[in-house]
Design brief:
Layout: H1 5-11, H2 15-23, H3 33-36, H4 61-83, H5 89-115, H6 121-131, H7 137-147, H8 150-155, H9 159-181, H10 186-209
Helix pairs in contact: 4-5, 4-6, 5-9, 7-10, 9-10
Amino acid sequence: MSLPRTTKSLLTPLLPLLLILNLIAATMWTTPLSFLLTTPALLLPATNAHPILPTNNKAPLDTLITAITHLSTDYTNFYHGVQAFHGTPEQYNEGLAAELIVERSIHAVISAANAVEPLNDKDSRKVLETMRQPYPEFMKNLLDLIKTKTEPVAHLGKTYEVKRILENLNRVSDMLAMGVEKKVVKEVADAVAGGRKWVDELFLETIRAYGA
């Protein structure tokens, strides 16, 4: 039976909110890592993550810029989490929580990049400048730091799990860069592609530190 028109008009603007509330679930950081690694990044505590950014066929440039800026902040928090890790399960779980938030932010950037219209030279360079916050030099510092944590990670028996996390982070980072490359002018796309390949090498070195 169809709903009255008045009821439909009241429910329609609430549907996106209901969907978001349904996707965002509180997660205890004592949950086994094998579950967390297969759980969508949306299933994070809402108090610890940026709101899901709206996307549509006419997503403005500001949406993409904001998404990249949020990602930069989340990467910084992840860096601090890795820095604070010295071998306790609690520290490991805190770092894992920060990494999952990074993945969520990466997917927000990918969605914004896919939705935005092709950019002109000026806007393309604005995106490139914003991307310099988390990429590529910051990534070198982050991955170099992660390489120094092989012993305490091994002490917890988490070597294989960290390797899987790094492989997935590498994969979604490539998806982000390639999504941006499709929407910016060629010169900027070439610069983003060059940074992506350089970061891929950094990931490869770090992954090797956790086993072939």
